Automatic annotation (TrEMBL):
<keyword id="KW-0274">FAD</keyword>
<keyword id="KW-0479">Metal-binding</keyword>
<dbReference type="Pfam" id="PF02424">
    <property type="entry name" value="ApbE"/>
</dbReference>
<keyword id="KW-0285">Flavoprotein</keyword>
<dbReference type="GO" id="GO:0016740">
    <property type="term" value="F:transferase activity"/>
</dbReference>
<keyword id="KW-0808">Transferase</keyword>
<keyword id="KW-0460">Magnesium</keyword>
<dbReference type="GO" id="GO:0046872">
    <property type="term" value="F:metal ion binding"/>
</dbReference>
<dbReference type="InterPro" id="IPR003374">
    <property type="entry name" value="ApbE-like_sf"/>
</dbReference>
<protein>
    <recommendedName>
        <fullName>FAD:protein FMN transferase</fullName>
        <ecNumber>2.7.1.180</ecNumber>
    </recommendedName>
</protein>
<dbReference type="InterPro" id="IPR024932">
    <property type="entry name" value="ApbE"/>
</dbReference>
């Protein structure tokens, strides 16, 4: 539940606490528009559905369950994250190999 708290500016302070990704998230935002604040929660909930290792129904869990057995069709979001991970792994390997 996101609760507004008035402060001395035109913005409100929104405070929320919820369980996601196997942890407790405490979210504090200063924003004029509650819709923008709710968008942050919705985005985090989407990431939880895709990437949570703590949910048996997440896309990440499905990838892990099928690992080595069958190809897995993934969402654009998961594909982009995997591509970013590969990029940073390769970049890290280049840095380590220079020492």
């Amino acid at each position: 539940m996101i609760k507004p708290m008035q402060n001395h500016t035109s913005q409100k302070k929104y405070v929320s606490q919820f369980s996601m990704m196997g942890t407790i998230i405490s979210l504090t935002l200063f924003e004029k528009n509650q819709g923008a604040v709710e968008s942050v929660y919705d985005y985090l909930a989407q990431m939880d559905r895709v990437f949570s290792a703590n949910r048996g129904d997440s896309e990440l869990s499905r990838i892990n369950q099928e690992a080595g057995d069958a190809p897995v069709t993934v969402s654009d979001t998961a594909y982009e994250l995997i591509q970013d991970a590969i990029h940073y792994i390769r970049a890290s390997m280049r840095i380590v190999s220079t020492f």
